[in-house]
Design brief:
homotetramer; 7 helices; 19 strands; 353 residues
Chain lengths: 353, 353, 353, 353
């Protein structure tokens, strides 16, 4: 909820810059007794890894995560769990040219205005590399949720530029293509689109959906710790996120009440426009969240910008960038969903036993 | 860091149920020396008041706010400011029939699942009546922001069901019609639509935009206290909210990077797709947020539901309800914008002097 | 994570000034289903009430507490519980003479330095009247702890000026005298001492002990949410508190390890120098805390002070003051003990189920 | 304020066990632009280092602190600062014998009761090794306070077992002896006492005082973020702490109001019984805190205890332990003072500009 700490009672605090010595996080409040090892964490890190395919950044970090504390004889002890990844493939020389420039669409300018000083290398703290630690922390949450509540979380690419892929045709196919696309028939189209995009030097936005199944009813602490408000905060805190929807989201605007309200029968709800949350509390239905990611602004196509002295300059961004950052966002939204649900399950049992 | 507390260093804690003795809030962390009186607060309360026009609920609360603490000789003292409004027009008998029923689309079921017990009268704690206190607290924030930073905040109805009104044709017109519609030419269309809707017994969703001007660059505490993440949380915490966008929002998905990135010149930014936030920190541009509100589910048109014993029942909601809750959301999104900005200005100066 | 909020997941936020319209609090995170009514709260308020005997202040507040929210049909609902007491016996004219003066030993000067502005009437926010709400909130915590964990909390006067009463001779006698003295043989001595003190116009300090029995082992969230650290914060936050001890406290300084360490057998611990807390976590032994209260500085005996213009002035404090504020502190330290234990039980079950 | 995070807006989160791979911390909210390097941090770490003299534990850690983030080109950037120290001299074999035993006076039993599982090596998370990171974080706070407010913080040994050294005879002498003793005449007595104690196999308690000079008036956020309450929490959270006093502390109990109240003249206060805090807010006087530390229970002298199966066992603690943990507490209480003051200065300027 504050500064660099996320969560109420299951809390994540991350640190590290893109080109500093290391990135890491502290997970605070994890229940004791959860079996975990570094290899399990690495599996999910590979899902978001740079250098995975030609469609994402060519930075090739090993993401060799170490568990520094809070785990003893393979199990969590209840004390803070520190995770660390050393940065090994940081090529800071790529950034010499933007040392004194503010790249439009980036946090360069705003960090400068906030702090008067910044680590300009690779975006410093504002780099998407920070999300590595969200994914790492999310692994513990996902595992605990699965073991204790059978909760399953799955994200997928719902749209990439003009190509809509929001309807899930085949759940199993999501992990079998580099786009987390749930429709095998669209994969070739996506590949062609991305190849052309990369050649053009431009980038594009994306929309990523995530579903959580078997979420117990009753999670959420109204009014200012609502489950959906915390999910909105979680997703909007991801780099490049510009919009968040729960359930029907913006489609609700044109809906009638008779259409939107999810009627209930003894067999269950007849629809799920609510996205699993009513009055800020989970209803037992699937929790469904959609997040919009903007196109990255790190382009080799020149644009107008300013330098730190206020001069107008032409900005060209070199370095190794994703033409669609949304592709790799899938494991990140899953992680944020897991962190929020985990936090709320623990918070719920604080008050409700 | 939440439950019923919102904010980091300028914090709001609200209490009260729709049909309880009173609703109220504590504002904690308000700078000393701000001149304020109850009448100023009442002005904004009237903007969101029920019973304002035939298009909103006919519950007629006087909303006679009292300042119980933290203000001495007309000025804030720096200590907690408590505001209180007694509930006077609560007609609990309207709710006898739903005492044992879960209204679909409402928080009845989820509160029941969470707490095993609920104040069913008028939605209890989940009633939109709680937002009265957000508006009241927002008055102090808006005033302080205006006096100290010339920040101006204005909300408007951007869409009501099928009618789009997102383009502001006339800023002054917003306050001159009961819809907060920024296009005088559309008011008649809105009135006709609402009259027909009310007759039909149905409800409809809405989208409300809000702009904050003259926001200084540098606000936002990355990574987990990002300005946009806190705005997303703030807006999603409002009753009936289902989606939040910053700047281009979901339109970013189909945008190219060359289109989305807001180029900078010495005359300023050439566009504002970012909505005034880059990397979670304000850029000095206008901060623009859009929120989707679902149609209320309180309808006299029957639907299928369950009662607390699990029996299937036909639900008909009587009582006095807004056919479009989004109409009255305009002062609420303004208030939430003000509370977030106020909090972040104070938080910024904590760290940055 | 504070300002005017106390606790992690069971949280109290208070408001109100000594001579303002009312004082009150919000209790956030209380489990649902606890039966409570205003009369139960009033009982404990009477224990700390002003005007109880000739030994305490003659301000006679009815302390007619109202429950404004969070309780429905006599039971807590899980939503924020607001309590309110209107101030009725505030005689602000008593304070006209100190309007522009800083009473030594009071918060007058420091509030002025902090906020540049203050409600001078009766100490404003710094008045011990605020503790009324701690006692009120503590009633709910004490009741819940008793019902759910058989926890019993009892405070007593351990020393008043030179008179030591720390050894409990008769638990039942504590409530039968106006001093909360646990030794009936000392009551007359205390009365004589206080009568002489009152005549002299001076005041004196006191030490108050509190014990909590049947506290389950395992409470406390190391490192920075340790049970003893939270107890220290709780007690030191009470008006006039200057010192806090857990168990052997300052006596530990001269102890040897062989003396201090509480050996364990199958029949239990052989001593309790730890005061029930080891490594910040409860051990299952009685939790014992001792708090030092300074003598009030509100005296009719003149002293040197300054006014707000920096002039030297002779200060004489009229008004109705307790010659020993520690006497009435007993219900307050009990309440703070209850609030901390309640918070930690809920926090414990968040992480540990 | 919660779990493993300390502070409101300048916040410390630590991790690590005594015999795990590493210990570390995240410092969140540090103002940008502070020059800092690892060597400065190491200087203070040496002050608390084990192996310093024959009077403290013979564990010889290099405490080779690394700065992993938040510092760029030698200056803080405003983003989270991570510090890391690898554990190199951990001899876990020393602890094999207590793997299944609960050492009396230790956190072994309580961690077991809380988490049902523990890292038993060297006390795991409850080891005083954690305080290394407090000292490390404190270095940044102390430096910033000195540079920006001329605040100076100095701790000293005030009592060791029966030997009182609370009166400061020579400020400069404190750093010139291994006891942080402010009276050169007492050093030989302390050495003899400690030599005899070590031979006896026993341990002893200590009292440590700390003063902060040039603290501006106005720090402290009443009611539940009072400066003295936060100091009490800070000191009580240190391993082995059992009591905390501000100013006159427990001596206040026997004081009269005419004695205790610190009269004010144009030349300043005439005394400082308050210890620099009135009503929870700093007065501009020196802030003075005294902390009691119990004798360590890690003794080679056998005692009665239990094992994890509930059997009675004779406990003998080998390993390398301090016969008086209070000696090394001096840099720790200084660090905690610095962290609290830093936090409150930033918090103050949030609300008060």
């Amino acid at each position: 909820m504050s500064h660099n700490i996320f969560g109420h009672v299951f809390r994540i605090s991350t640190f590290g810059e893109s080109h500093g010595p290391a990135i890491g996080c502290i997970i605070d409040g994890c229940p004791p007794g959860l079996e975990i090892d570094a290899d399990e964490i690495r599996l999910d890190l590979q899902r978001r890894a740079t250098g995975k395919t030609r469609h994402t950044s060519q930075r090739r970090e090993k993401d060799d995560v170490q568990i520094l504390s809070g785990v003893f004889e393979g199990k969590t002890t209840g004390t803070p769990i520190a995770l660390l990844i050393e940065n090994t493939d940081a090529r800071s020389r790529d950034y010499e040219n933007i040392k004194r420039q503010f790249r439009p669409g980036h946090a360069d300018y705003t960090y400068w205005k906030k702090y008067g000083f910044r680590d300009y290398r690779g975006g410093g703290r504002s780099s998407a590399r920070e999300t590595t630690m969200r994914v790492a922390a999310g692994v513990l949450a996902k595992k605990w949720l699965k073991l204790n509540h059978s909760i399953e979380i799955q994200g997928w690419l719902a749209q990439l530029g003009p190509i809509r892929t929001d309807e899930v045709m085949d759940w199993d196919s999501i992990e079998r293509n580099p786009f987390f696309c749930p429709d095998p028939a669209k994969v070739t189209e996506l590949e062609k689109y991305m190849d052309a995009l990369r050649k053009s030097g431009d980038s594009v936005g994306a929309r990523v959906n995530v579903i959580a199944r078997h979420v117990p009813a009753g999670l959420g602490a109204p009014i200012y710790g609502k489950l959906d408000a915390d999910l909105a905060s979680a997703m909007m805190s991801i780099n490049a996120a510009k919009g968040v929807e729960i359930g029907a989201g913006f489609d609700s605007v044109a809906q009638k009440g008779t259409e939107h309200r999810d009627e209930m029968t003894q067999r269950g709800f007849l629809s799920n426009h609510a996205g699993g949350v009513l009055g800020g509390i989970s209803s037992g239905q699937d929790v469904i969240v959609s997040t919009a990611f903007k196109p990255t602004s790190s382009l080799r196509i020149p644009c107008q910008g300013l330098d730190i002295d206020g001069n107008e300059v032409e900005i060209v961004t070199k370095g190794r960038h994703d033409p669609c950052v949304g592709i790799r966002a899938t494991p990140i939204v899953e992680a944020m969903m897991a962190l929020v649900l985990m936090d709320h399950i623990l918070l719920h049992r604080a008050q409700n036993g």
